[in-house]
Amino acid sequence: MVSQSDMEDKTPPPPNSDKTMANRTIHKTHEEGTVVDADTSYLISSGYKPQLQRKFSWMQLFSCAFIVTNSWLGVTGGFSTGLTVGGSATVIYGLIIVAVFNVAIIISLSELVSSMPNAGGQYFWAKKLAPPSQSRISAYICGICNLLGGLTGVSSGAVAASYMILGCINLSHPDFDIKAWQAFLIAVVFILLSSLLNFHESVITKSVVLGLWWCLMSCYAITIIPAAVAKEHAGPIFIFNSTENSSGWSSTGMAFLVGMINANYAFGLIDAGVHMAEEIPEPEKNVPKALFMAVGIGFITAWPLACALIDCAVDIDAIAGTSTGVPLLQLFYLSLRNNVAGSIFMQLLVVTSYFWCIAAAQTYQSRICWAFSRDQGLPFSRLWSQVHPRSKVPVNAHILCVCFSIILCILPLASTTAFNRYIKTIIMPTLEASLEELTLTLSLVTGVIIFPYISIIIPVFYSLLPRNKDVPKGPFNLGRWGTVARVFTILYCTTVSVIYCFPYAMPVTAGDMNYISAVIGLVALYAAIDWFMRARKYFDQKDQ
């Protein structure tokens, strides 16, 4: 065994040292008489004590990465948003454009994780690749943004699923009056129930595979059944050529970009597999494969589903203005010829898929929280960095993330009106919905996109600096094409992050302001206070 004193005295090699790759290219090495494998040797050389077990298979890793991103589920969650803001063409072509750029992002992430596999992912790479004077602060910013992206993903998914459940009740009992507090309670139950799958490693590894097959079968059913049963179809002209601009922007191009938020959301949190790098053998090979498969299968499932749903959207006014509050449910109802039971069944396929997605996303966010806490990235990090001795998972970090996910569901309740707008527009913006209602939703959804993108931009940018040209390459390396992919990653992530800080509606008023800039400001304020009061002294001091 490696003693604690040995761990504290060990100084990791610089990023351009051959020692980093040397420790991973051998299969056996010795640390004071104890034989360890290459994966463990690399982790020790990076300055960390191995705490998690490498029990994930490649299939289980892919399952986790896929159901966290779950592109087809992202399409259903905001189905009517793209239609009302940019039209069906925005949804269809937006998915293609976003998928192409996400391939560039995956190439960038894969090259980095292949070279430096670590559960910290982006913040760990920023720490290793940034100039010494910028290393710690860059890593700290990455860690905060990465964690916040996971937290908002869990909470927004739970709230969306809760209103889908209430919509099903309303469809079967039209007199049922949907209340904000009901959605909140269901969202809390959703988060708590899905969290139970994350308290033991053996449960996680089995549940992600079950979740994968459930999500794939649900996607197949939702793609085929409504289109096969529906009496009327919108046709290919409507699917591929219909445009809509309710944003108020005079530029059709800007309306298209705003409408693409649904497509970007559908490929959110694509870095999930990166943060499982310490729970699978040979992560330098297996993680890149899982990332590519997650994006590839994500597009293969999302694009046909989007085409099929839009083909069934003959009466958009009735779908968007449904009294159930769930346009997708109304689409099922009309397509299945007013069959209430069948419509509810189809909607529950979406809801249960959200359950698996949220459970896997909690695995994702807890690993970020745990890894970040190893380097004292959060207050009371000693508590959050512990791994349970029997379950072999970071239970404390998981509980912390569950609590904050619930808090994010509570925050909109500070204003009942704001909460109702938030819920209403996240899944049911009508064509006549006020721009104020729509932009409140887009501001929150954008956070799930922007914060992970910020965490990606920083290490990818540093990886292009001349000082890092001699960083050892991993098994996955595309050479000059990898460099091109990194440039496109920076350009795309930066462009998206900037554009989605613009107002979504014109002219701008206090009601239709894009509040993501205010959210970023609050996060920056917290980070500044924590950095100067605590993190500047304690964060990642083992390398100093």
What does this structure look like?
The chain is mainly α and 544 residues long. The chain has 2 domains: 1-50, no CATH class; 53-538, Amino acid/polyamine transporter I, CATH 1.20.1740. 69% of the residues lie in helices and 1% in strands. The protein is built from 24 helices and 2 strands. The chain has helices at 4-9, 18-25, 38-45, 58-69, 71-77, 79-85, 88-115, 122-129, 132-172, 180-195, 201-229, 236-241, 252-259, 261-266, 283-312, 316-320, 327-335, 340-374, 381-384, 395-410, 416-427, 435-463, 480-499, 516-538, and strands spanning 28-31, 34-37. A two-stranded antiparallel sheet has the order 1-2. Helix 10 (180-195) crosses helix 18, helix 17 packs antiparallel against helix 18 (340-374) and helix 21 (416-427) crosses helix 22. It starts with a helix and ends in a 6-residue tail after the last helix. Residues 1-33 and 414-441 have low confidence and may be disordered.
